[in-house]
Specification:
Elements: H1 7-24, E1 31-34, E2 39-42, E3 45-47, H2 53-60, H3 64-96, H4 99-103, H5 106-122, H6 139-153, H7 156-165, H8 171-179, H9 185-205, H10 207-212, H11 215-226, E4 231-235, H12 248-251, H13 273-282, E5 287-291, H14 292-309
Antiparallel strand pairs: 1-2, 2-3, 4-5
Helix pairs in contact: 2-3, 3-11, 5-6, 5-9, 7-9
């Protein structure tokens, strides 16, 4: 039961659910732009600025009320919603660090899956890694993972391409084109573009994109780093003498950071893999997940007190 509800499995579940949500948003018209009708669907309704032709005509003749009404509606229904959308990742970063990257990001999930399969096949987590990691797979087992990798390479990218194209082409139209085998140029372009993107990033770039390119990740990174209350994984230095130097915390870190340095590493995504691995090694591990410096100090004092009582 504990293995079922492990941190690793909970992260897998959260990402699968988030990917399902992302793919279902356009299906239920929760969020999509129809390129045929040039309409933006939001929460099941067509989203407009609420500006009528009468308002436009009146503003052209210099009516102040009509001009002010147009400016106000544009502010309320265009600029403010856009600012709210842009603020999501800075706010998330300020309070939760890069937790979105570690627990929800669909790209991160694909990159970790690629890491897993690459390690099973080659003993490395990426094609750029020099040193091999611990592996005890037979040739038959490696062949099994090779078949899985090839299957996923030819299924996940096009399926994601079809799902994401639904944000710009009506899902009903996409379904009709797929069932009649009569794909439009728009659907072909969407599937091809997304497939190439996933293929290239999953094989050659992976977490380098998370570190240096992804805008959402960089915004969380910046605001999480400057925030005094951000959620972070910390190493209990005062108990470092219990560390066996197994380095498994470093092996499981797909962002290639050194968890035991205990600094505000801007690449940490709060995946808690190091925490889980350390708990397996020591029973009571040397890592904690805490909000802010004050909470961290309280956690240290509490752990120290518990150690004295034991």
């Amino acid at each position: 039961m504990k293995q079922l509800f492990s941190i690793k499995n909970l992260r897998r579940l959260s990402r699968i659910l988030f990917i399902c949500i992302i793919l279902l948003l356009p299906v239920f018209n929760i969020l999509r732009y129809d390129s045929d009708t040039r309409e933006l669907f939001l929460a099941g309704k067509v989203w407009t600025l609420g500006i009528t032709e009468t308002d436009l005509a009146a503003s052209q003749y210099g009516e102040i009320k009509s001009s002010a009404r147009i400016a106000l509606r544009f502010l309320v229904r265009a600029i403010i919603p856009w600012l709210i959308l842009l603020s999501i990742f800075p706010v998330l970063g300020f309070f939760f660090g890069r937790t979105f990257c570690g627990w929800l990001c669909p790209e991160g999930a694909l990159f970790e899956l690629a890491d897993f399969l690459t390690r099973k096949l080659t003993g490395k987590t990426s094609i750029w890694q020099r040193e091999k990691m611990r592996s005890s797979l037979s040739k038959g087992q490696r062949l099994f993972y090779l078949i899985i990798m090839v299957f996923l390479l030819f299924t996940i990218p096009p399926l994601m391409g079809i799902g994401l194209t639904g944000y710009f082409i009506s899902p009903a139209r996409i379904w009709h084109e797929l069932t009649t085998f009569n794909l439009s140029s728009g659907l072909k372009a969407g599937v091809t573009g997304v497939s190439l993107y996933i293929f290239i990033t999953s094989i050659f770039i992976r977490h380098l994109l998370c570190k240096y390119i992804c805008a959402a990740g960089l915004m969380q990174m910046l605001f999480g780093w400057i925030s005094p209350v951000s959620l972070r994984v910390r190493f209990l230095k005062e108990e470092a003498n219990r560390c066996t130097d197994c380095k498994r915390c470093e092996e499981v870190c797909f962002m290639n950071i050194k968890p035991r340095k205990n600094v505000r590493d801007i690449s940490c995504v709060n995946c808690m893999a190091c925490l889980e691995q350390c708990n397996k090694e020591l029973g009571r591990g040397l890592f904690s997940l805490q909000f802010g410096e004050k909470a961290y100090q309280e956690s240290r004092e509490m752990k120290k007190l518990q150690g004295q009582l034991q």
